[in-house]
Amino acid sequence: MSASLARLVLASLRPRAAPLLAARASGCQQRRHHSYSCAPPQLNPTVFDKYMKLDTGSTVMATYVWIDGTGEGLRSKTRSLPSYPKSTSDLPFWGFDGSSTGQAKGHDSDVELRPVQMYKDPFIPGDHVLVMCETYQKDGTPHPTNFRHSCVKVMERVKSSNPLFGLEQEYTFLDTDMYPLGWPKNGFPGPQGPYYCSVGANCVYGRQVVEAHYVACLFAGLTIAGTNAEVMPGQWEYQVGPCRGVDIGDETWISRYILHRVSEDFGAVASLDPKPMPGDWNGAGAHVNFSTNEMLAEGGLAYIKRGIEKLEAEHGRHIQLYDPNLGNDNSRRLTGLHETAHRDEFSSGVAHRGASIRIPRHVSEAGKGYLEDRRPSSNCDPYLVSESLVRTIVLDDWSDFTMPEPRK
Q1: DSSP string, 196-242
Q2: Cis peptide bond N-terminal to 233, omega within 30
């Protein structure tokens, strides 16, 4: 290739490559949590397997999982129990150093963990458990970062309507240098188009991690409906649900914990950032499908449309509650491009993936079913999202709700 031709090729690539390479250099700014770009030591899994075959007797290892002060990060610690717990009531309360998780000051740092759900542990052979926990302050009140407590109370109020949720969790695999897994290190892959639901090593990055995560979630007892490759290369989605009430929050958070743990085993990073790469690339969301008894019954489409009208009236509030930074994270994703509606404009439509709320075509034709809220970000808190939908559509009541404080 002549020098002049080479310069022309580089010039044609530069407008698209520049923002991507710049994003690679500043990845920690956009992926605040778990974004330290240091390569882990290369450990030998064969050595690890030797220890996993040892008999631990009747002792049960219980891994307590909780949401930290960022509103999107997960923490865990493990304790021994003398026997297998029959329910969460058999699990003791525990505590942690809240000053190390953004949930307390150093001079008064104890935060209490209260078990609320229990699942089979897919990581340690034997009868061991993962435990989803709520966080509480020293006076026995829910910690300000504990949004499950309020969600439980709201779901109890609408129990007769049987609120059902399905959450489509999108995420992006990154290498340990915080650049998308499988992408050329000094450039970018071909344009979007061939990657969605694709097959082949030239289009698919991370399938082994995806399927290991899928199996691990099913083993744990989670309601996982499916998975698929997404539009941006290295981006994937799995679906949680259908789940009733607060279960959508519990199962989504534990599925995320399992995703991070499985990715860790493969030496990859699972990012929930809603726009991990700037430029002409899709972001990542957590679309929520929602229905009630009234929506699923004959003539339910009228209830769906009425619910959409209520969602339009509360659009600004929902945008604030649909990511952990009061809408600021989602502002990078909800631009009106890449299958999104603009964050400042509410819209709805049948089979419209560029709308805030989509009515699936088969729902419109059947005259009943569910709606899809496409606004929640991939790093949303599903407790807040599910509570918001119920408050707006079913209860039409926000009178006792306290808006979360901005994250520091």
Answers
A1: TT--STTT---HHHHHHHHHHHHHHT--EEEEEE-SSTTEEEEEEEE
A2: no
Secondary structure (3-state) at 174: strand
| Residue 310 buriedness (CB in 10 A; 0-12 / 13-18 / 19+) | middle
DSSP-assigned letters across all residues of 294-363: HHHSTTHHHHHHHHHHHHHHTHHHHHHHTSTTTTTTGGGT-SS-SS---TT---EEET-TTSSEEE-HHH
DSSP 243-256: EETTHHHHHHHHHH
- Tell me the Ramachandran region of residue 403: left when phi exceeds 0, alpha when psi lies from -120 to 50, beta otherwise: beta
Q: In whole angstroms, what is the distance from residue 355 CA to residue 345 CA?
A: 9
Give the pTM. 0.91
What the block records as the tokens of 26 is 């500043």
Round to whole Å and give the CA distance between 402 and 387: 12
Look up tokens 């999104």; give the residue.
Answer: 340
User: Would you say residue 37 has pLDDT above 80?
Assistant: no
Name residue 228's beta-bridge partners. Answer: 237
Cα dihedral 64, 65, 68, 73 in deg (nearest 10): 150
Does the pLDDT of residue 32 top 60, yes or no? no
Quote the CA–CA distance of 246 and 132 in Å, as a whole number: 12
Q: What is the pLDDT of residues 336-367, one digit of tens each?
A: 999 999 999 999 999 999 999 999 999 999 99
Reference 288, options 320, 254, 263, 318; nearest CA is 318
Strand partners, 64: 77, 131
Tokens representing 226 are 């499916």
Give the closest residue to 165 by CA, choosing from 240, 72, 256. 240
List the helix and strand counts (H, then E) for the chain.
11, 13
- What is the three-class DSSP state of 291? strand
> Does the N-terminal peptide bond of residue 144 adopt cis geometry, omega within 30 degrees of 0?
no
